[in-house]
Amino acid sequence: MIIIGLVVLVAALVIGVAGVLSNSGDAHALTHGFAVFGYHVTGTTGTLFLYGAVVGAAGVLGLGLLLAGARRTARRGRTARRDLEDSRRETAAVMHDRDELAEAQHAESRDHGGVADSARG
User: Fold this and answer.
1) Which parts of the chain sit beneath pLDDT 70?
2) In this structure, are residues 44 and 25 in contact, taking their beta carbons and an 8 Å threshold?
3) HSE of 1 in the Cβ direction (CA atoms, 13 Å)?
4) What string of H, E and C letters represents the secondary structure of 46-108?
5) Can you say how many angstroms the Cα of residue 15 is from the centroid of all Cα atoms in its chain?
6) Cβ-based neighbours of 34, under 8 Å, separated by 6 or more
7) Which of 16, 15, 23, 14 minimizes the C-alpha distance to 46?
8) 10-41 tens-digit pLDDT
9) Model confidence, pTM
10) CA dist., res. 65 & res. 5, Å (int)
């Protein structure tokens, strides 16, 4: 998978460089300049293509970081839910053991108390 990704990346870079170089010079000058965030874009169509490629790469990088953060958060949540469920299960088992022990002690104290009362009488 990594090799396929690397081949696609190299192909995209070659196509991008070819697009910039083939659309440079006076024959490919932008006929109408425009502004983006107050910056006036002038030059050739190749330069405009290069700007678009840089903006696209920045967008892909930002999306990758966003998805990586979401994946990490989901993994933490899944781990926390699993740990909480384990903790609840352990707590329930300990409470059950405590209740059984208390019941056994109560029964034992009743048995000893009943024997002592009948011996007195």
Assistant:
1) 1, 113-121
2) yes
3) 0
4) HHHHHHHHHHHHHHHHHHHHHHHHHHHHHHHHHHHHHHHHHHHHHHHHHHHHHHHHHHHHHHH
5) 32
6) 40, 41
7) 23
8) 888 888 788 777 777 777 777 777 777 787 77
9) 0.53
10) 18
The pair of three-digit structure tokens given for residue 79, joined into one six-digit string:
């781990």
Q: Write out the two tokens for 35.
A: 């502004």
Read off the tokens for 62.
Answer: 């930002």
- In angstroms, the CA 73 to CA 92 distance is 28
CB 63 within 8 A of CB 41: no
Find out whether 46 and 19 touch, Cβ atoms under 8 Å: yes
- CA quadruple 75, 78, 82, 87: dihedral, nearest 10: 90
| Structure-block tokens of residue 40 | 């006036």
